[in-house]
Design a protein that fits this description.
The chain has 639 residues and is of the alpha/beta class. The chain is built from 19 helices and 31 strands. Strands 10-9-6-4-5-12-13-24 form an eight-stranded mixed β-sheet, sandwiched between helices. A seven-stranded mixed β-sheet has the order 3-2-15-14-16-17-18, with helices on both faces. It binds 5'-O-[(S)-ethoxy(hydroxy)phosphoryl]adenosine (WTA). Belongs to the ATP-dependent AMP-binding enzyme family.
Length: 639
């Protein structure tokens, strides 16, 4: 463990940060109303928070304010910097590159917004966006925001079933998809997967139209009356579109994420609070300036992509880079070339990417200039001190601050972090809470832990970026997040606070597995496996993995012993969830360790799968204590 600040510093926090923390503490209402001035409002809010974590739970920010998110990201920048680059799109093939100015991005967003209005999309309607990393992905999100439609961005790696589940739950009326997406040498059949998904929705589908973006120009089946060419439709429209004036608490988007139980949860983010949080955090955490070329490598279908590919940098008037491809394709170090070619100044990525880069020869990163870089960031999983230092030394050339940012889909933006120029980094620790963020660590009895210690990571007060609810299920929202530590929001993570007040994230304490930054609910995996009729039951758990952080392991109990085909389990997961969730390893076992009341003891499965066989604890409470020794033997045999 590294305890000294790195690089060495006497004072880990700036005066500015200290001042912000004090002001936020002294008068939160005044502080957050002042932060709202980052945005352009049609009606200024007179109140900041009307949130309450007790009773039915309410998350409410700037409720009397009115604004439009797309106007905030575009129109006000068109006024004074129309020719500045808003979006640089870099394709994965050399020569595929486009620089889109604020004026041009505004025009393209308006054309598409007009198309959506013509197709009957109204304020509050949901529009699903299912695109790879192309400019149209950003344009589609902003076009929805412009007319008050709620965007639901769906990951390109979801299976047809995964898409269908989210289309049905959200009730999307229009879908924007690609003909075919590129992923390194592979082609991903976006349109045909979407066709299948809509078919699976059957009578429950609300989808009236599908707009198809010609990403590769491939010939794809088009259903008459329903499917339309994106290019042909936008060509019919004018580059201007009046924005819908929204209430601050109207939803800007829904985003699905995995939890410990059941189906994916559609988190609902607000227009005003979310946008204030995107602006505040992007500026403070990354020390971002409008002159920065800001590259957040996340896919736009994750919250990181929403807040730091799209809304944060654009609301603050910067230039975003959208890169289509993989880190090391067609050659190792491709992303370093992308940084050099586009003069990227802020680079925000994941520990998985850094761990993969560390495995390459050091000459790969050392042969690139990387002199445009100013600030580095990571997100999504804990980063080891070794990886942090490698990132700092090799990519940042010992000159760029590294910010390890802890946050979640639910929080809308960064919560605990170092801040470039304002809060010194410490390798392996996430850092300090941002001003106004009331982090607490709680013990198993629900008591707050003071000073140094380890506990459940909770938030005692709302913050502007907090999701307001779960789509059409406020009760599930309340139960999921506000019952473990009553009166607090519980994150699902554990953390440790050190003597300097820095937080070290220890990982999920619930049944969520974090594979390369992808949040995967074990229940989703088990539901998919249950579709295989040769299976009696299964249990999915996470185990430590060198490259992915965690890997998914599934224990399967087949109906008939002997001729069970474990690859069928992979197929069931690929079909039910998506290829990205296919387990690393499947163990075929005769039974699972259970309590006498029949509850699967996952703690034991995690230890057995990780070959961590010390301290197995008291086994006498199991219905069949002998099963543990048998599982240990079977796992060793099957490895
Ligand atoms: C994990 C991504 C350690 C954590 C923004 C959290 C992290 C989950 C970090 C949220 C970090 C995120 N250090 N763990 N810096 N950042 N996590 O919703 O377990 O996709 O609960 O949001 O990722 O994942 P999500």
């Amino acid at each position: 463990m590294v305890d000294a600040f790195f690089p060495a510093t006497d004072n880990p926090v700036s005066d500015r940060y200290q001042d912000l923390v004090q002001r936020a503490q002294r008068d939160p209402e005044e502080f957050w109303l002042a932060q709202a001035q980052r945005l352009a409002w049609h009606t200024q809010p007179m109140h900041a928070s009307r949130s309450d974590f007790t009773g039915d739970v309410r998350v409410s920010w700037y409720e009397d304010g009115r604004l439009n998110a797309a106007e905030n990201c575009l129109d006000r920048h068109v006024l004074y910097q129309p020719d500045n680059a808003a979006l640089i799109w870099q394709g994965q093939e050399d020569g595929h590159r486009e620089v889109i100015s604020y004026r041009e991005l505004h025009a393209r967003v308006c054309r598409l917004a007009n198309v959506l209005r013509r197709l009957g999309v109204k304020k509050g309607d949901r529009v699903a966006i299912h695109l790879p990393m192309v400019a149209e992905g950003v344009i589609s999100m902003l076009a929805c925001a412009r007319i008050g439609a709620v965007h639901v961005v769906l990951f390109g790696g979801f299976s047809a079933e995964g898409l269908a589940e989210r289309l049905t739950d959200s009730g999307a009326v229009v879908v924007i998809t690609a003909d075919v997406a590129r992923r390194g040498p592979k082609k991903i059949p976006s349109k045909t997967t979407m066709d299948e998904a809509i078919k699976l929705c059957g009578a429950q589908s609300a989808v009236r139209n599908v707009l198809v973006v010609p990403v590769t120009g491939a010939d794809v089946p088009m259903q008459k009356g329903r499917d339309l060419s994106y290019t042909a439709e936008v060509a019919l429209e004018i580059p201007d579109c009046p924005a819908e004036v929204m209430n601050a608490c109207d939803p800007l988007f829904l985003l699905y994420t995995s939890g410990s139980t059941g189906r994916p949860k559609g988190l609902v983010h607000s227009t005003g609070g979310y946008l204030v949080w995107a602006s505040f955090t992007q500026e403070l955490v990354f020390d971002a300036k409008p002159t920065d070329v800001f590259w957040c490598t996340a896919d736009t279908s994750w919250i990181t992509g929403h807040t730091y590919v799209v809304y944060g940098p654009l609301v603050n008037g910067g230039t975003i880079l959208v890169y289509e491809g993989l880190p090391s394709w067609p050659q190792p170090g491709r992303w370093w070339d992308v940084i050099d070619q586009n003069q990227v100044s802020v680079f925000y990525t994941s520990p998985t990417v850094i761990r993969a880069a560390m495995r390459e020869d050091d000459s790969v990163v050392q042969s690139r200039s990387l002199s445009s870089l100013r600030v580095l960031g990571t997100v999504g999983e804990p980063i080891s001190p070794e990886a942090w230092k490698w990132f700092y030394a090799e990519v940042g050339r010992n000159a760029c601050p590294v910010v390890d940012t802890w946050w979640q889909t639910e929080t809308g933006g960064v919560m605990i972090t170092a801040c470039a120029q304002n809060v010194a980094g410490k390798p392996g620790a996430a850092g300090l809470p941002l001003p106004g963020v009331a982090v607490t660590l709680t013990d198993a009895k629900g008591q707050d832990i003071e000073g140094e210690g380890e506990g459940l990571l909770c938030l005692a007060q709302s913050w502007p970026g907090q999701a307001m609810t779960l789509w059409q299920d406020h009760e599930r929202f309340r139960k999921t997040y506000f019952t473990t530590c009553p009166g607090h929001y519980f994150s699902g993570d554990g953390a440790r606070r050190d003597a300097t007040g820095y937080y070290w994230i220890t990982g999920r304490v619930d049944d969520v597995v974090n594979v390369s930054g992808h949040r995967i609910g074990t229940a989703e995996i088990e539901d998919a496996v249950a579709e295989d009729h040769a299976v009696v039951e299964s249990a999915a758990v996470g185990v430590p993995h060198d490259l992915k952080g965690q890997a998914l392991v599934v224990f399967v109990v087949p109906k008939a012993e002997g001729a069970f085909d474990a690859t069928a389990v992979n197929k069931a997961v690929a079909a039910g969830v998506g290829r990205y969730a296919v387990p690393e390893k499947i163990y075929v076992v005769p039974d699972l360790p259970k309590t006498r009341s029949g509850k699967i003891v996952r703690r034991l499965l995690r230890k057995i799968a990780a070959n961590d066989l010390d301290n197995m604890g008291d086994l006498s409470t199991l219905a069949d204590p002998d099963i543990v020794a048998e599982l240990i033997k079977l796992v060793a045999q099957q490895n």
